[in-house]
């Protein structure tokens, strides 16, 4: 491992990130750094080279059991849920400052572990710290209400919001650090304790975050981090009888397995799943902005974004201009290793995802769609895929219906401004996560936003990354909303108390 890290590829790494990546990794359970009960480890790959850069413990059901027990003890008898809300705010604020202070290091780890370009990772980490700060403020604002009751007699009745308890959180690999924080910050602010399982493809920044959480001074057992595979560690967490709530982000197929696994103790479940999100460009839109934004909507993070704009609907009057612009934008994007300062998009996360995306591209061509996008030769064994734009697709083609999770977009013309027809086309999907609308006609934009079955809509922008805005899916894109005030509902239970004053 250390020989790989000492190659020139990693020469730009700072001392702290190089030391961390090359270190002997352990999992965080009950405030201690431990190996897996089985003693097993698994390899962590740099997707930009295909080489093994680290090994982490392969946690399984025993380790999940120990982590849940620690989280239970921290919840029932530890200081965390009993702390004054303002103290939880202060600790979370400190965590945000530390994330920022370690920003360069976290970004470098993300560039190696996930493959995304360093500059992109760096921006993501700044946003992550802001998410922690936003959520930290809610600790002191979890008020209930007094309720005026109508039953006979004199009463004092009120509601209160209580932390739901021990939370299992299972996250994906596309934004490793932000996904960990999206999950942890709201759970912690309300006083829950957590067992976090990062994706097996990207365990490093969750572990680094564990050290930062320790440094901030969180009590032991409040955050436990178990690295391992989905079918073992993940499944054990989802099925565990002493977990009160499970929060998951990932594929719709795995989301359904989480729901099944939750049946044993009917734990609360929230799911952030896939998407096949439409982007509409009307002929009156500011095309100078809309065209590169439509390209970024699908090519950003190599298309590995749940809210990626993978169905691009462009009015026929401007179809050629916009679609040629998107193709040109894709062709010009520098695809390369995360640590290469020239890179604008990185590799896909794994050989498996690379092959999956390539299969979809081949299938699209076999089914008769026309593909645009310059072929590329990549000078490394990284999991790179060139951007593709498909035209002449049909509604029943797999590339039109299924989440590809790569830099592949289907572009479709629309003819008139028949809103019902346009909305019906946008809604012809099992998903409902996001939609983008580009027009200067605000009446049209609001009318269309109202008709689209999706949890988030952006007008003249793509996906606003704002902690105060709730985010989540209609239909098979998920259950519940993350971010905003709404996320607090996922991690709290409401209690009503009625006191007879007679
Ligand atoms: P996945 O949904 O299987 O994995 C996500 C997380 O779930 C990982 O931490 C994994 O270890 C865990 N997991 C897997 N099986 C589990 C189980 N039976 N019980 C509990 N946890 C389990 O996603 P995968 O296989 O990595 O990617 C496949 C496809 O999923 C992608 O091509 C993409 O379409 C979609 N995906 C969507 C994401 C999103 O943000 N909505 C993120 C990642 C993947
Ligand atoms: Mg899977």
Automatic annotation (TrEMBL):
Family, similarity comment: Belongs to the aldehyde dehydrogenase family.
Protein name per the record: Aldehyde dehydrogenase
One Pfam family matching this protein: Aldedh
PANTHER family for the chain: ALDEHYDE DEHYDROGENASE-RELATED
Residues of the active site: 272
Keyword DNA-binding: no
InterPro entries (UniProt xref): Ald_DH/histidinol_DH, Ald_DH_C, Ald_DH_CS_CYS, Ald_DH_CS_GLU, Ald_DH_N, Aldehyde_DH_dom
Phylogenetic placement of the source organism: Bacteria, Pseudomonadati, Pseudomonadota, Betaproteobacteria, Burkholderiales
Domain Aldehyde dehydrogenase: 33-497
Source species: Caballeronia ptereochthonis
């Amino acid at each position: 491992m250390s020989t790989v890290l000492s190659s020139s590829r990693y020469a730009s790494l700072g001392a702290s990130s190089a030391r961390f990546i090359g270190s002997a990794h352990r999992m965080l359970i009950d405030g201690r750094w431990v190996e897996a009960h089985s003693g097993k480890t698994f390899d962590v790959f740099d997707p930009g080279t295909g080489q093994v850069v680290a090994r982490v413990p392969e946690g399984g059901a025993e380790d999940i059991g120990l982590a849940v027990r620690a989280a239970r003890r921290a919840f029932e008898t530890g200081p965390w849920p009993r702390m004054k809300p303002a103290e939880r705010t202060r600790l979370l604020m400190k965590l945000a400052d530390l994330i920022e202070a370690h920003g360069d290091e976290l970004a470098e780890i993300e560039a190696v572990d996930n493959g995304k370009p360093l500059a992109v990772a760096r921006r993501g980490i700044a946003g992550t710290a802001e998410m922690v700060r936003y959520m930290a403020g809610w600790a002191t604002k979890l008020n209930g209400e007094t309720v005026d009751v109508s039953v006979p007699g004199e009463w004092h009745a009120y509601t209160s919001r209580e932390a739901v308890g021990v939370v299992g959180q299972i996250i994906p690999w596309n934004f490793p650090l932000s996904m960990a924080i999206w999950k942890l910050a709201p759970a912690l602010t309300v006083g829950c304790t957590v067992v976090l399982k990062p994706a097996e493809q990207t365990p490093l920044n969750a572990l680094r975050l564990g050290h930062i959480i320790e440094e901030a001074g969180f009590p032991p057992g409040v955050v436990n981090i178990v690295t391992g595979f989905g079918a073992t560690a993940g499944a054990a967490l989802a099925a565990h009888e002493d977990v009160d709530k499970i929060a998951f982000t990932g594929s719709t197929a795995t989301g359904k397995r989480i729901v099944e696994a939750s049946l044993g103790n009917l734990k609360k479940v929230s799911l952030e799943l896939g998407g096949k999100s439409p982007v509409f460009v009307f002929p009156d839109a500011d095309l100078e902005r809309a065209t590169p934004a439509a390209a970024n909507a699908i090519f950003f993070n190599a298309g590995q974004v749940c809210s990626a704009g993978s169905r691009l609907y462009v009015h026929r009057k401007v179809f050629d201009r916009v679609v040629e612009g998107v193709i040109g934008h894709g062709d010009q994007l520098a695809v390369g290793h995360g640590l290469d300062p020239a890179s604008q998009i990185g590799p896909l996360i794994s050989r498996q995802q690379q092959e999956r995306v390539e299969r979809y591209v081949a299938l699209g061509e076999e089914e008769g769609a026309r593909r645009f996008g310059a072929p590329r030769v990549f000078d490394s064994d990284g999991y790179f895929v060139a951007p593709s734009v498909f035209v002449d697709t049909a509604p029943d083609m797999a590339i039109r219906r299924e989440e590809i999770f790569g830099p592949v977009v289907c572009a479709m013309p629309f003819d008139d401004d028949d809103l019902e027809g346009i909305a019906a086309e946008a809604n012809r999907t099992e998903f409902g996560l996001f939609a983008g609308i580009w027009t200067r006609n605000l009446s049209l934009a609001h009318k269309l936003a109202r008709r689209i079955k999706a949890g988030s809509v952006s007008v003249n922008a793509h996906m606003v990354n704002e902690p105060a805005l709730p985010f989540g899916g209609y239909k098979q894109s998920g259950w519940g909303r993350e971010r905003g005030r709404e996320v607090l509902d996922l991690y709290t239970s409401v209690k009503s108390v009625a006191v007879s004053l007679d």
